[in-house]
């Protein structure tokens, strides 16, 4: 099996390095963390990316992996586009917003006849090997993708809320997603609302600070609410469907609620610095608020909504 790597071509290679797996994993993790930090710093020149400026790789890794598990449990599926039979026969798949590569690794192993390309702003952030029918490449989506028109039969896009301005999303990202999808191909968007329903006073205060900081940088925080309009008005979208799931946060919601709590709390930790600035609060005061959140979620029976859109290109 080949390792995660960053490349601009479309070859699917295997790693033939004679180095031991332990040495390769250790060096990969060190280079990944340094790359991660560098990309965070470089992103400051591009205000359309990064809801968080955290350089805590472990924090972000854990959060993204939990999001993946949470969505799988909520939907009882890893995708809802009607492409399973095609995946079994062999098609070309693009995963945008791949993060740690969990989704693409699992799907590539599940459907060995299909070829998978995953892109994200990070590069080589996981030491987990990719199956030989998958490859990973870095791309900030700040400009046109180096991919041909109609190159993929299925494009899976997830967790882009908070990474782009409204203009960048509509004028570049959305158009690029449609452009690289083949005629008759399927697009699937997966997003989670950062707004919480039945939120308590501490939760509202933290969310207000998070949104205030995001708005100051022009970041688009309600991407999920714009997709219906964009899909409906696009001349090359033949049909689309929208579906939602409401999920509990906190142990009042049982196992799903516990999982959501573990996935959501890191958001407020990785946005701590900017939230403290907008809230004019001290480090100790902020930490004290976070400690109270689990009980507040239970008291108010807080929930959030996850969205899926599937669309077919004409």
UniProtKB/TrEMBL annotation:
InterPro entries named among the record's database cross-references: Methyltransf_25, SAM-dependent_MTases_sf
Protein name: 5357_t:CDS:1
Domain Methyltransferase stretches: 93-185
Organism: Paraglomus occultum
Upper taxonomic lineage: Eukaryota, Fungi, Fungi incertae sedis, Mucoromycota, Glomeromycotina
Superkingdom of origin: Eukaryota
Ranges where the record places region Disordered: 1-40
């Amino acid at each position: 099996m080949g390792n995660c790597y960053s490349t601009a071509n479309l070859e699917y290679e295997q790693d033939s390095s004679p180095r031991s797996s332990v040495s390769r994993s250790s060096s990969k993790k060190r280079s990944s963390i340094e790359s991660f930090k560098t990309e965070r710093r470089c992103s400051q020149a591009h205000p359309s990316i990064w809801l968080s400026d955290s350089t805590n790789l472990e924090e972000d890794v854990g959060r993204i992996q939990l999001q993946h598990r949470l969505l799988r449990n909520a939907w009882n599926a890893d995708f809802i586009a009607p492409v399973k039979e095609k995946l079994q026969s062999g098609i070309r798949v693009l995963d945008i917003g791949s993060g740690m590569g969990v989704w693409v690794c699992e799907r590539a192993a599940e459907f060995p006849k299909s070829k998978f390309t995953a892109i994200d702003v990070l590069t080589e952030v996981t030491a987990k090997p990719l199956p030989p029918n998958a490859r990973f490449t870095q791309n900030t989506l700040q400009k046109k993708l180096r991919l041909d028109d109609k190159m993929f039969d299925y494009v899976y896009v997830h967790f882009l809320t908070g990474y782009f301005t409204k203009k960048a999303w509509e004028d570049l990202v959305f158009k690029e997603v449609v452009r690289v999808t083949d005629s008759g191909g399927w697009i699937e968007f997966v997003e989670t609302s950062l707004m919480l329903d039945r939120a308590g006073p501490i939760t509202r205060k933290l969310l207000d600070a998070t949104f205030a900081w995001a708005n100051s940088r022009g970041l688009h925080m309600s991407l999920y609410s714009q997709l219906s309009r964009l899909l409906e008005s696009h001349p090359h979208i033949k049909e689309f469907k929208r579906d939602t799931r409401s999920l509990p946060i906190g142990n009042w919601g049982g196992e799903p609620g516990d999982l959501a709590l573990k996935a959501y709390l890191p958001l407020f930790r990785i946005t701590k610095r900017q939230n403290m600035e907008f809230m004019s609060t001290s480090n100790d005061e902020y930490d004290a608020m976070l400690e109270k959140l689990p009980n507040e979620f239970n008291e108010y029976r807080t929930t959030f909504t996850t969205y899926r859109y599937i669309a077919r290109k004409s």
